[in-house]
Write a structure and sequence with these properties.
alpha+beta
């Protein structure tokens, strides 16, 4: 695929998330001001999501499984009609995978009190994840929480707190 095709696929994934998850970004100011009349419904959906997610996690009790993690987050977002970055990115990831837009990575970046999840398309796995300047050149980022997609190099200006990137930031990859 060409770089422009990956960008179009990322845009389509964001549109898919917007069409299938009603209450998005409940931990951002933009998530609340989009439709302030829906605030009570947003709270109810988020509470349901947190309870259902906690119940499923407790029932599972096994070791981390990236595939299961993404599947469950996507299912949770779609069932409860709500999600923050992790659920929304999981819905986008599954959409891209179903459309056979490969390779794709699900990133979960945790830096103390700051964390964020997003999807990266077309990252070259032969380049170390910490060598962002090299792999980001051909890669495309898909961030459905903020309705953002574009060259992965934009991550450095969008989210400077996450650098340097670590190998463990890639939670799951499909080639």
């Amino acid at each position: 695929m060409l770089h422009s095709e990956y960008t179009k696929a990322a845009q389509a994934a964001i549109a898919h998330v917007k069409a299938n998850v009603r209450y998005r970004g409940l931990n951002t100011a933009g998530g609340w001001i989009r439709n302030p009349i829906d605030v009570p419904q947003k709270f109810a959906a988020r509470i349901k999501s947190l309870q259902l997610g906690a119940s499923r996690s407790e029932a599972y009790g096994g070791a981390f499984d990236g595939r299961l993690f993404i599947d469950e987050l996507a299912k949770l977002g779609l069932e409860t009609q709500t999600g923050n970055c992790s659920e929304l990115s999981a819905v986008a990831f599954k959409h891209l995978e179903a459309a056979k837009v490969l390779p794709i990575d699900y990133f979960g970046v945790y830096r103390g009190r700051w964390d964020h999840a997003f999807v990266v398309l077309n990252r070259d796995p032969s380049i170390p994840i910490s060598d962002f300047a090299k792999w980001s050149y051909q890669a495309v980022v898909c961030d459905p929480l903020y309705d953002r997609c574009g060259d992965a190099g934009r991550l450095a200006t969008w989210y400077p707190k996450m650098f340097p990137l670590k190998k463990t930031d890639v939670m799951y990859r499909v080639e």
